[in-house]
Design a protein that fits this description.
alpha/beta, seven-stranded parallel sheet, 19 helices
Length: 422
């Protein structure tokens, strides 16, 4: 009918526009890389993908391809990655972002780790033909049209793990037909909540299971491991310890004044999101910001850390262990628009967690704020008020922290739901 012809024409036009946009991005990126270290890593890291695959792939093995956008999604998928390896699969992990790949490129939890080549038809076809995955798992989101199409054509079982959908996404808009076509490539959707299931049901998808969020299983594992760090123990001593995790300048604006004026016996650990030396120097040396005796992690072997009041982590990869020493945690990202970081990592240790004002897109934060385990502040004055109430009452710290611990305990189980489902 004319209507179907028109629909097919529009859909094919959108597909062409999508493909052309990928080629355009590929052409522009080397120029942008001249001015951005992150983009340089993005571009240069992808140059070795095909060589790595050709030399490291075992032709006799069954691979599960797990795609993660960045570090957070890798941590989210890690319980499933470990479980699949125990079942005899080898696991190939791909990252889109340098912030994930550069931290986990040598992880012992995967057999091969590479960047995901850009989503061109040729790249997708070559990748699927080389890997020949037994199954593919996309963690939480990222819907790359050509990769999904190639998996579908090759009859590879393809799953979305801990997916989350919102009405504002293109899938659920009148103009979202092209994006909706991506969803038909999935064998099954394992989603975090009922809203996501209902939204997919509304599009006619019945292959949906509310399995929960594997991040709860992941953070539960964190408590059980060895989190001992000698240098943090030396720094903390017998004092109360507050950890500021993944904080941005907008977060610093509300907590640094408190650090400068607080008279209580407290040790402060700051783990900035941006650890560029210039940014660290500004934070450390600008006395208008931080007027305390400050040490850097990189100096830990030359200093007696017990003599210092503030410790700045000018490195990455150890924040989850540092949280185990905290009596109170502040999780960054919520005062600005960069996005709230993971509140579950400190919450699992049964401590109060403070965040900024912007957290509506983060379901676990919304639920914990409602329960009283996570405390949201919108100003330096509000932060100081909340901090004082927690510092001055061990009983309140315990009550608030227990809310967080119990919440995570009740939410575990998404990994088993996924394994049983597949």
């Amino acid at each position: 009918s004319p209507e179907l012809i028109t629909f097919a024409t529009i859909s094919n036009s959108l597909k062409l526009m999508y493909t052309l946009s990928i080629y355009l991005v590929r052409a522009i990126l080397p120029i942008v890389a001249l001015f951005s270290k992150k983009i340089r890593l993005f571009v240069s890291g992808r140059k070795s993908v095909w060589t790595t695959l050709s030399t490291e792939l075992d032709p006799q093995a069954r691979y599960v391809w797990v795609h993660t956008a960045s570090l957070g999604e890798f941590e989210q998928g890690l319980p499933v990655i470990k479980a699949l390896r125990k079942q005899g699969y080898k696991v190939l992990v791909t990252f889109f972002s340098p912030s994930g790949y550069e931290v986990r490129k040598n992880t012992p939890d995967a057999d091969i780790v590479v960047y995901l080549p850009l989503d061109t038809p040729a790249n997708a076809r070559r990748f699927v033909q080389m890997v020949q995955p037994a199954m593919a798992v996309f963690v939480k989101y990222e819907f790359w049209w050509h990769y999904l199409s190639q998996l579908h054509k090759a009859n590879v079982p393809t799953y979305l793990l801990s997916g989350i959908f919102r009405p504002t996404q293109a899938f659920f808009k009148p103009y979202g037909g092209f994006m909706r076509r991506c969803l038909h490539c999935f064998t099954h959707f394992f989603v975090q909540n009922d809203q996501s299931k209902q939204l997919l049901n509304g599009l006619g998808f019945t292959n949906v299971t509310v399995g929960g969020d594997t991040r709860f299983d992941r953070v539960a594992e964190i408590v059980a491991r060895d989190n001992h760090l000698d240098f943090v123990g030396q720094f903390k001593g017998d004092a109360l310890c507050v950890v500021f995790g993944s904080s941005w300048p907008a977060d610093e604006e509300i907590y640094l004044q408190y650090l400068n004026t607080c008279k209580a016996n407290i040790k402060f650990i700051i783990a900035p999101h941006n650890i560029h030396p210039t940014e660290i120097a500004v934070l450390r040396d600008n006395k208008q910001k931080l007027d305390r005796k400050v040490a850097l992690f990189s100096e830990k072997d030359t200093l007696n850390l017990s003599d210092y009041e503030v410790l700045i982590l000018d490195t990455i990869g150890m924040l989850t262990k540092v949280y185990s020493y905290a009596d109170i945690a502040y999780v960054g990202g919520g005062m600005g628009t960069s996005g709230l970081h993971n509140v579950l990592e400190p919450a699992v240790f049964g401590i109060p967690v403070i965040i900024g004002k912007n957290y509506e897109k983060f379901n676990e934060a919304k639920e914990l704020v409602a329960l009283g385990g996570v405390l949201s502040v919108d100003s330096g004055e509000a932060f100081a008020e909340v901090m004082n109430s927690l510092v001055n009452s061990a009983e309140k710290r315990q009550i608030v922290g227990n809310i967080n611990r119990e919440y995570i305990t009740e939410k575990k189980g998404a990994t088993n739901a996924f394994l049983e489902g597949i």
